[in-house]
Amino acid sequence: QKEVEQNSGPLSVPEGAIASLNCTYSDRGSQSFFWYRQYSGKSPELIMFIYSNGDKEDGRFTAQLNKASQYVSLLIRDSQPSDSATYLCALLPMKTSYDKVIFGPGTSLSVIP
Amino acid sequence: SAVISQKPSRDICQRGTSLTIQCQVDSQVTMMFWYRQQPGQSLTLIATANQGSEATYESGFVIDKFPISRPNLTFSTLTVSNMSPEDSSIYLCSVEAGQLNYGYTFGSGTRLTVV
């Protein structure tokens, strides 16, 4: 089983709608979770991190973590065309002896004007 | 958070040659990470570089192919040796953004094309 799984997409939403991106993970001991945004031809940019169960909001972005079900999600409210990018879910697994971030395959999001 | 300067930003190289990629960080960091992102794929960790010790390589990556230097706490290089077209990828270095829970910051990447 892959350590971090995401739907590859593409996910298409109309402008102004809510985009919902989901991620599941296999290592129950994972502690910290991250969402990165990557525009085509650019390096990943950290947009959210979460390590406690529940919701964490930052502007139009909300990260949700459920450790019992081993999933983390990212909601983007009032989606804009500029949100069109690939979103990478990442985590820090407990089993490693050093701080190595594991990335999921990414979900491509397209916001249609 | 830490700012990374990575160079070159892109290069086109002949097969059989080597390319060295440099990353300079504006603050001292314990660990630096080197990733590869093949076209249309996610990030794969190549190795972790600690200052003063040999780099730790992930499964599928070896020192002879990807030698790494870490001479001090702000600088590291990754060399892609004896290149083949299969090495065409984006190579990225990464460091902790700040406190560990704040995630990791990436350099701007090196887009390598091997012909």
List keywords for this structure.
heterodimer, A: 113 residues, mainly beta, six-stranded mixed beta sheet, five-stranded antiparallel beta sheet, 11 strands, B: 115 residues, seven-stranded mixed beta sheet, four-stranded antiparallel beta sheet, 0% helix, 51% strand
Structure in words:
With 113 residues, chain A is mainly β. Helices cover 0% and strands 53% of the residues of chain A. Chain A has no helices and eleven strands. Chain A has strands at residues 4-6, 11-14, 19-25, 32-38, 45-50, 54-58, 61-66, 71-76, 85-92, 102-103, 107-112. Chain A is globular, with a radius of gyration of 14 Å. With 115 residues, chain B is mostly beta strands. Chain B has no helices and eleven strands. Chain B has strands at residues 4-7, 10-13, 19-25, 31-37, 43-50, 56-57, 68-72, 75-80, 89-96, 104-106, 110-114. In chain B, strands 2, 4, 5, 6, 9, 10 and 11 form a seven-stranded mixed sheet that branches. Chain B has a four-stranded antiparallel sheet with strand order 1-3-8-7, with no helix packed on it. In chain B, a hairpin with a 5-residue loop joins β4 (31-37) and β5. Chain B is globular and about 40 Å long. The mean pLDDT of chain B is 92. The A-B interface holds A 32, 34, 36, 41-46, 49, 51, 88, 90, 92, 98-106 and B 31, 33, 41-45, 48, 56, 90, 92, 94, 96-97, 100-109, 111.
